[in-house]
Amino acid sequence: MKDPTTKQKAIVDFINNYFRQKNISPTFREIANNFGVSVGTIQDQLISLNKQGLLTWTPGKARSIKPTWENRTHTTQPVPLLGVISAGEGITIFEESDPEPINVPSTMLRSESGYYCLRVSGFSMSEDGILDGDIIVVRQQAGATDGDTVVAVINNNPEEKATLKKFYHHGNQIELRPRNQELNSKFYNPNEIIVRGKFVGLLRGVN
Questions:
Q1: Residue 172 structural domain
Q2: Do both 46 and 118 map to the same domain?
Q3: Which one of the listed residues 86, 126, 165, 166 is annotated catalytic?
């Protein structure tokens, strides 16, 4: 199979950068306008790139162009920043209605989807190096293994709270353990806790 041309490489780079910045794919028209060519020309190029395995797209479906996993932004993957998580007593669940994408190193991720980011509020996980203002990367999952750091929703009162803690299952009780010597674990009935995901990575210095 022949290598992509210089123009085709530029198209792939444009799609990569667009996806990284906006977390959606560009339209044929947007790609054509960027390169000053016709939509038909771009369609021909995309068909060729698809055959080369550099991207996939669904004819007739808007914004369906996707670079392959190996080519998408090379070292990062856009992951939505959904809101704030408490590393303390728990905060009322808050999620952004229009989340901004955060560029996450691909080494933190096992797949292209199923992840989200949260900004940390508090210091209950400071001994694990998770500090106030950090952004954590979370893999969506409903279960946990002892010792996992999890995003847990505490639903034992009318106002559900979300918190970041170590998870331990003790028979008929769930322990949510902080990693701060000044704080104590809290224990809950299993039906009072909903696991929303597992901590898999940390980003610092992201505004």
A1: 76-203
A2: no
A3: 165
Helix axes of 28-35 and 6-22: crossing angle, nearest 10 degrees: 120
Residues 40 and 58 in one domain: yes
Mean pLDDT of 9-28: 80
- Note if 198 is an active site residue: no
| 62 and 88 fall within a common domain | no
Q: Is residue 85 a part of any domain in this protein? A: yes
Between CA 174 and CA 110 the distance in angstroms is 28
Q: Does residue 103 lie within any of the structural domains?
A: yes
| % of the chain at pLDDT higher than 90 | 31
Q: What is the DSSP string of 53-107?
A: TSEE--TT-TT--EE-TTTSSTTEEEEEEEEEEESSS-EE--EEEEEEEEEEEGG
CATH at 144: 2.10.109.10
Cα separation, 5 vs 171, in Å, equals 61
Domain count, the chain: 2
pTM of the model: 0.62
> Does 165 qualify as catalytic in the annotation?
yes
CB neighbourhood size of 187 (10 A) = 15
pLDDT at 83 over 90: no
Residue 149, pLDDT score: 95
Half-sphere exposure of residue 48: CA atoms within 13 angstroms, side-chain side:
16
pLDDT of 82 reads 86
Q: Is the same domain home to 20 and 116?
A: no
| 195 vs 94: which has the higher pLDDT | 195
